[in-house]
Every structure is written in C-alpha cells, then in structure tokens.
Design brief:
Blueprint (H helix, E strand, L loop, with lengths): L6 E5 L3 E6 L6 E8 L6 E6 L5 E6 L5 E3 L5 E5 L2 E3 L3 H9 L5 E5 L12 H10 L1 E7 L1 E5 L3 E5 L2 E6 L4 E8 L7 E7 L2 H8 L5 E3 H9 L12 E4 L2 E2 L10 H14 L6 E8 L3 H13 L4 E5 L19 E3 L6
Parallel strand pairs: 4-9, 10-21, 11-19, 14-19, 16-17
Antiparallel strand pairs: 1-10, 2-3, 3-9, 4-5, 6-7, 7-8, 11-20, 12-13, 13-19, 14-15, 17-18
The chain binds zinc ion.
C-alpha cells in the first residue's frame, strides 16, 4: 500500500490574488486553479485585447530572462516575469500540478514573499490525485560557475538546499542556510522571507524602467548598511532565506520535483536556470523515478504545516 505522500497533489480549490507588478507597477490579478495529474505548472496570460496566450508548461526551457527576476516565454512574443515566488509557494507546499493565469506582464509581488500565496492555498487544502509522484533523481554532480559564484546539483538521499550569500554590505553580509525540505519547514522557515534591495540600486533600476512598483510594502529597503522599513525583520537572517525561497521556485522549473541536493554560493536566478540546463544537457546526470522507488524514509508530505488538510484522497480532478 502506497502512502498518500507518494501521490501527486494539486490545490483543493481556486485561489485569486490582486496586486501590482514590482517592475511594471501595474495592477494584476493572478488566479491559481487545480490541474489534472501530470500537467505540472501551467501558465497562461490574458492580454489587454482579451486574447489568451497559453497555457504552456512553465519549465526551464522557457526561461528567457533572469535579470532581477525569472521570466518565462509563453510564445507569440508574450512573456510573464517574476514567476519565482508563486512557483516557490506551489513547490514548497508539495503541489505538483496547478494552472496559473494572470492578466499582466508579471506576477503580483504581494508583500515580497511567498506567504500570501501559501496562506491562501493552505486555506483551501490540498487534493491528492491518483497518479504516483515522479522525481528527477540526480545521479551525477553538475556545477555551473560565474567568477567566484556557483550553483550545483548533486546526488543526495532526500531534497535539500545549501545556500550561502556574501554581500559587501554590513546589514546582509555572509549568511548560509541548509534546508531539508518538508512542506512544514518551507512554510515556517522560508515562505515569509521578503525580497530586498539597496536604495542606490533602486534609483538606477527605476531609471532603466525596473522596480517601478517596489516599496517598503513589498521589499526590505537597505540604505548605507541600515534597514529603512519601520517593521523588524521577519527572520534574523531573512536575506538568505529569501534567496532560498527564490531557488525553490527557480528549481521547480525542472518540471518535476528534484531528488538530490542543491548547493549555491552567491548565486541567483541566472545560475539557478543554468544549472538546470546543464543537468538536462546529459541524460546520464539524472533519472526519472517514481516515488515508490525512493526510500520509505522520504515521506516529506507527512510533515504538513498547521492548518493544511489533505482535503480529498486519491480523487483525480480530471
Ligand atoms: Zn525573490
């Protein structure tokens, strides 16, 4: 008898978010719906003239830009930016299949973390599907480098991230986080970490047409080694936790959950995308395994966050 956690999951119901794009500053509505087993993360965008582009599978092969955020191409010269926090919430909660639709050029930034998405999804519960979950099991270490920064995927009995940042700024400095994934740990230790930026960079970005919607409502603002936000940090090392949140989202563009360990030093969206491309460049680097072929000890979905129900068992949503 297979455990429930070996099955694929989708959302227990539809969730909807109204917010603004952190770069475009335009109002955007994002809707996430349950999706059939085997679909992965589907994404579509409704244009101003009412035309719908997509849905397409949001995976690494569609990543077109990694400057400041992760952008995926939907075809017809239409793209969606800043998808990493939404995808991070889905992946972090152990959701395999979801239909994401929005009516603007980027996902709404909300409070700069994944918490608003996580809370709304938890309120609806998860729906366990008939199909067995599949993992991409890392067989050989793959490393990508850029100067002194690197990102790597390596064989490991579980799902872990080991991430370190090193900023030339006293407020951020050097921080490291080692994270063994379970949905509960993701919600408690990762999901609330907000994005951050330096005021002097923000001025340059705004002149270039980026970060037009950024504010202290959705970012930690740093100026001269000081945090300007009136409220305290949500975690003492919130910066590395946010980078880990980003990595969870970027790595979920592998198409299926990764079984192995991710390591990163001074990394970001570009190296996260590159390490996936390198992984899939050689079939000897990985294999697709069914959850029932993995050690029984790996039952991460048993560690659910408070308030999250598995609403209905083994019921396909079509
Ligand atoms: Zn981020």
């Amino acid at each position: 008898m297979h455990k429930i956690s070996a099955r694929q999951c989708t959302l227990g119901g539809t969730v909807s978010f109204d917010g603004i794009g952190v770069h475009s500053a335009t109002p955007i509505t994002l809707v996430i719906k349950p999706a059939p087993a085997g679909s992965g993360y589907l994404i579509s965008r409704t244009l101003e003239d009412g035309r719908v582009v997509g849905p397409v599978i949001a995976d690494f092969s569609r990543v077109t830009r990694t400057t400041l955020c992760t952008t995926v191409d939907l075809g017809d010269s239409v793209s969606v930016a800043t998808i990493e926090h939404v995808i991070s919430a889905l992946s972090g909660l152990g959701i395999d299949n979801a239909m994401i639709s929005l009516n603007g050029p980027e996902c709404p930034i909300m409070d700069g973390s994944a918490a608003p998405f996580v809370e709304a999804i938890i309120a609806k519960g998860l729906q366990v599907q008939v199909a067995m979950r599949k993992y991409i099991k890392i067989l050989r270490t793959v490393t990508v480098r850029n100067n002194d920064s690197f990102a790597a995927l390596e064989p490991y009995n579980g799902r872990a991230l080991d991430l370190e940042i090193d900023f030339n700024n006293k407020t951020i400095g050097r921080q490291r986080m080692i994270f063994e994934w379970t949905p509960r740990r993701y919600v408690e230790d990762v999901s609330r970490a907000r994005t951050f930026g330096c005021m002097k960079d923000a001025q340059v970005l705004r002149q270039a047409g980026y970060a037009l919607g950024s504010s202290m409502e959705n970012s930690i603002a740093i100026e001269n080694d000081k945090i300007l936000n009136p409220e305290p940090l949500r975690y003492q090392d919130e910066f590395v936790r946010h980078k880990l949140l980003d990595a969870v989202g970027d790595l979920a563009l592998s198409g299926m959950p990764l079984y192995g360990r991710f390591k990163s030093y001074k990394g970001g969206h570009a190296l996260n995308a590159l390490v996936l491309t390198s992984l899939f460049a050689n079939k000897a680097n990985y294999e697709i395994v069914s959850a029932d072929e993995l050690p029984l000890a790996f039952d991460s979905l048993d560690d659910l966050p408070e308030g999250l129900d598995l609403k209905s068992y083994l019921r396909s949503v079509g």
